[in-house]
TrEMBL record:
One of its GO terms (molecular function) is phosphatidylinositol binding. Residues 75-184 form the PH domain. The gene is Pld1. Residues 1-30 are annotated as: Disordered. InterPro entries: PH-like_dom_sf, PH_domain, PX_dom, PX_dom_sf. This is PLD1 Phospholipase.
Length: 267
């Protein structure tokens, strides 16, 4: 630890912030607000130091990840460790062949909630394992009866039923309420159907502009080709998410309408 502190780059904060030493039981009620402000300042200063911000113990305690500080990914929802059950895909070829509980396996993952998607990462490498998009079929269920799992949480969309296992019923309720409130506040445009059957609302003043266009199909309204030079225009929204996004939903033809497969086919 001492060596790591000495290796901090010049210009970065070096001094650890301090907390007040007065016991909580001796603090008067009128000083509670200033006490909260001191704690907030302490955590803010800790997160300004990359060495502590990137430490897994700090991230887990505060509930942040490396994605929390990327502004272009949109507003930050709740984050934390969950146990994720395998399977639940509605895409042919991705599900386990078995039907019973013996076929399931549980994996520890870091779940991140954003305005238009949920995703989980591997805790050791930080690699993104799966992205669950918010769409018109997005729904959350809780309880053993619905999920076949004690303290279970089920998150559905058009492509998957994701089963999570929590530590307690209260913990499952915390996740359900946190996800539901955040999505309905920041991602409500994705919960309804829009023009031409699209899941995305019309965006004004975007950087992606399409002059004389040939639209492939109405459900692929945002994947267009310029008639003269066959240049592909892709809405920037998709590029910030994943090339594995499906342009047609629900998925009924394997990977045919996955964005990267469409681009490869057109190329």
């Amino acid at each position: 630890h001492t060596v790591r502190r000495q290796s901090i780059k010049r210009g970065e904060p070096r001094q650890m912030p301090s907390l007040p030493h007065t016991a909580e039981s001796t603090v008067r009620e009128e000083h509670f607000s200033s006490r909260r402000k001191q704690l907030e300042d302490y955590l803010t200063n800790i997160l300004k130091m990359p060495m502590y911000r990137n430490y897994h113990g700090t991230m887990e305690f505060v509930g942040v990840s490396q994605l929390s500080f990327i502004h272009d990914l949109g507003p930050k929802g709740i984050e934390g460790f969950i146990m994720k059950r395998s399977g639940g895909h509605r895409i042919p070829g991705l599900n386990c062949c078995g039907q019973g509980r013996m076929c399931y396996r549980w994996s520890k993952r870091w779940l991140v909630v954003k305005d238009s998607f949920l995703m989980y990462m591997k805790p050791d490498s930080g690699a993104i394992s799966f992205v669950l998009l918010v769409d018109k079929e997005f729904n959350i269920k809780i309880g053993q009866k619905e999920t076949e799992t004690k303290y279970g949480l089920q998150i559905d969309n058009l492509s998957r039923s994701l089963i999570l296992k929590c530590n307690s019923y209260r913990h499952a309720q915390w996740w359900r309420q946190g996800i539901d409130e955040f999505i309905r506040k920041h991602g409500k445009d994705f919960l309804t159907e829009h023009r031409f059957g699209s899941y995305a609302a019309v965006q004004e003043n975007t950087l992606a502009k399409c002059p004389v266009l040939w639209v492939v199909e109405y459900q692929d309204e945002l994947l267009c080709f310029q008639a003269t030079s066959a240049v592909v225009f892709i809405h920037l929204y998709f590029l910030r998410l994943s090339p594995e996004i499906f342009m047609k939903r629900p998925v009924v033809e394997g990977n045919r309408w996955r964005l990267d497969c469409i681009l490869k086919r057109k190329a």
